[in-house]
Every structure is written in C-alpha cells, then in structure tokens.
C-alpha cells in the first residue's frame, strides 16, 4: 500500500505569545491525520516558537517569502509528491493552487477560508478580479470550506455559482478543557464590572469605537467599570492617545499579547468585540467557553453563535451610541446574562468535532 502524504500550508506565524485555538487545532489535526495513516508536513511563513508543536513536522519560510512561494520551491527542490494539500489563511483561486497540484502530483486540494470580508463588501474592481480568478483557477481546488455559514455564502458570492457545489461549512471549534470557567453568580447592582477585549489592535477590530463609546457614559457609570485589553498591533499607541484625549484612559489597561488567555478570561464578566469584519471568531468561542458572555457586532458569523440576551448582546458595527447603551445597562444591571454560556460550546463547537469534520474531507 502506497504512503499517504499530506501537506498543510498555513499563512500563520507560530509565536510563543499566541498559543490559541488555531494552534490547538493544528496539533490535534496533525495527530488525527497521522492516525488515518498520513505522513504530514506543515508549512508556515515563519516559526518563532515550536515547543507547542513538538512531534509536528514543521517547515518555515523564515520570513523570506510568502508561504505559498516557499511551498512551491520546496516541491521543486525536493521533488516531493503529496496525496492531499490543505491551505489555511491563504487567498483563494490564485495560480498557486494549480502550480502546487501539478508540481506535487496532488490528488485532493482543500482550501479553508478564514478571511473576513470588508463591512460593505469588496469594491467592484476586487469583485471582478475575484470572478476572473475563479474562472481561471477554481478547478484546481476540490473543496472550499468556510468556517461559518456566512463565510461559505461569501465564497460563492465572491467566486460565483461555479464553486457552489464544492463549497461547505466546518465551524471553528475549541478545546474547552483548557479554559477556566467563571462562576455563574450574578453581580450585585453596586459591584464594579470588569470587561475584557481580546483582539488585534487594528482599525477593522473597532476598538476606537469602544473608546468613543466610553466617552458617552455618565461619570457614575464610568466609576463602576474597567476594561482590560489583550492584544497588540499598529494602532496601540493611537488608541492610548485617543483614550487620553477622551479622558477615559483610566478605564483601560493595555496588557499586550498573552498565551494565558484561557485562564484569564474567567476573571471578567463580559467580552467586548466591536469588530467590523469577522468570519467566525475564536475569541467569542473561547469567551463563551469560559462562561463569559459577549458584547459584539452583527457582522460575519457573529449572529450564528451569539443569541441576543441568551449568551450576549449584539449591536450594529460602528454604532457607538448603541454600544454605550449596552455597557451602561450592563453596569446598571438592566441587562444580564444568567445562564451558563459554556454548555453550547461544549456541545456544538468542540475541537474534536472540528478536527473530525476536517479529517473526513481527506477520505
């Protein structure tokens, strides 16, 4: 029996301060694929930390090229062939897929789309470019997988009906066992409320709207809340200056990236995610797994997981007044989430389910 070989190409940098849901998925998927008889090679644009990936065969472009170019060069230099190729976080329907399929004698190509769309959709020029790419290259991809129903619909919208029959959904899942769980005790009305943000600090994540929303709050409300922000990005200094300008900097603590999020989330009462674009947020799943309800926008796959008043509260993106109202009512006790939010994640969005559904695509 010939050896089955799998290549996984991920536009994702391995870092020590970001051991999150995708890292846990990659390691679990590697183990499951090997159990199915596959030899597995992983390709990343850069590997700054590998300890978590012990036993996983990892190749790094070391930041010198795109991971796609690195993989094609690897195929050429090593004359390697693979039974299947899976991609994560890469652009769909580029010439890469055809070149890889031919160079690696690859039978099955699976492209997993984690990439969010702009709030108002792509401009006309981008839409036309996507359709042309689809026409030229879609045949090289055997399965298009969206991480939410929203994402799968966007794949077809972007690339055309020609890809509809080979487009499916596999929801993100998480390892719920690593999350410390918050006690489900209601806060007394006079208690302070601790909110948390876990996010890249870039414009599309909407943290600037949260800061503006804080400026709308009455002083009595400001005195009873605090927001801790985990994450880093190019907007960090600008956000800190904005907070000072709005005189709400005392309400915020910027903590940078942390690999301890699974243990830290339970210290807070709500996660706030004012994002403009999202596919299916692992941060939301992680927060709910820790029994921490979520305040977030109606974009992307967020409404597929957040049920208003049950495990969180939704508002329209960029609606700062609406966000301020939710925060004020939460602090006052006029809005509450009483039920344990972790049960849904354990039942419907487990890492085991996610891994099994992805492995099934290989058969």
Helix content: 25-40%
Termini gap: 16 Å
Q: Number of helical runs? A: 14
**What series of H and E elements makes up the topology?**
EHEEHEHEHEHEEHHEHEHEHEHEHHH
Output the radius of gyration.
22 Å
Stretches where pLDDT is under 50 for at least 5 consecutive residues are: none
In the sheet with the most strands, the strands line up as 3-2-1-4-5-6-7
Mean pLDDT: 95
List keywords for this structure.
single chain; 363 residues; alpha/beta; seven-stranded parallel β-sheet; six-stranded parallel β-sheet; 14 helices
Describe the structure.
- By secondary structure, this protein is α/β, with parallel strands linked by helices.
- Helix content is 36%, strand content 18%.
- The chain has 14 helices and 13 strands.
- It has helices spanning 21-35, 67-78, 95-103, 124-137, 149-159, 207-215, 219-222, 236-245, 261-264, 282-289, 302-305, 320-332, 342-348, 351-360; strands at residues 4-10, 38-44, 58-60, 84-88, 108-113, 143-146, 167-169, 193-198, 225-230, 252-256, 270-273, 294-297, 312-315.
- The strands form two sheets. It has a seven-stranded parallel beta sheet with strand order 3-2-1-4-5-6-7, sandwiched between helices. It has a six-stranded parallel beta sheet with strand order 10-9-8-11-12-13, sandwiched between helices.
- α11 (302-305) links the parallel β12 (294-297) and β13.
- α1 packs across α14 and α6 (207-215) crosses α12 (320-332).
- The longest helix has 15 residues, at 21-35.
- It is globular, with a radius of gyration of 22 Å.
């Amino acid at each position: 029996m010939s050896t089955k070989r799998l290549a996984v190409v991920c536009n994702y940098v391995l870092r020590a301060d970001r051991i999150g849901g995708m890292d846990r998925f990659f390691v679990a998927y590697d183990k499951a694929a090997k159990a199915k008889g596959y030899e597995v090679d992983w390709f990343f644009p850069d590997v700054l930390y590998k300890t978590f990936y012990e036993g996983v065969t990892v190749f790094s472009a070391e930041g010198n090229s795109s991971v796609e170019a690195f993989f094609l060069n690897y195929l050429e230099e090593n004359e390697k062939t693979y039974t299947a190729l899976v991609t994560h976080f890469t652009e769909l329907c580029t010439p890469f897929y055809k070149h890889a399929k031919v160079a690696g004698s690859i039978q099955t190509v699976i492209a997993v789309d984690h990439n969010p769309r702009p709030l108002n959709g792509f401009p006309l020029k981008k839409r036309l470019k996507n359709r042309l790419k689809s026409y030229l290259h879609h045949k090289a991809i055997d399965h298009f997988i969206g991480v939410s129903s929203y994402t799968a619909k966007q794949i077809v919208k972007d690339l055309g009906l020609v890809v509809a029959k080979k487009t499916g959904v596999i929801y993100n899942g998480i390892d719920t066992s690593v999350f410390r769980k918050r006690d489900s005790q209601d806060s007394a009305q006079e208690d302070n409320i601790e909110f948390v943000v876990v996010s890249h600090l870039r414009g599309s994540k909407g943290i600037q709207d949260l800061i503006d929303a804080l400026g709308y709050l009455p002083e009595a409300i400001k005195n009873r809340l605090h927001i801790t922000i985990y994450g880093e990005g190019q907007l960090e200094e600008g956000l800190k200056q904005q907070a000072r300008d709005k005189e709400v900097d005392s309400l915020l603590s910027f903590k940078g990236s942390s690999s301890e999020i699974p243990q830290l989330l339970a210290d807070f009462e709500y996660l706030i995610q004012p994002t403009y674009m999202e596919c299916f947020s692992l941060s939301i799943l992680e927060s709910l797994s820790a029994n921490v309800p979520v305040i977030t926008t109606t974009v992307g796959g967020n409404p597929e997981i957040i049920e208003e008043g049950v495990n969180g509260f939704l508002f329209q993106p960029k609606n700062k007044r609406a966000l301020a109202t939710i925060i004020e009512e939460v602090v006052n006790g006029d809005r509450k989430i009483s039920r344990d939010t972790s049960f849904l994640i354990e039942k419907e969005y487990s890492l085991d389910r996610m891994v099994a559904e992805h492995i099934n695509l290989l058969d």
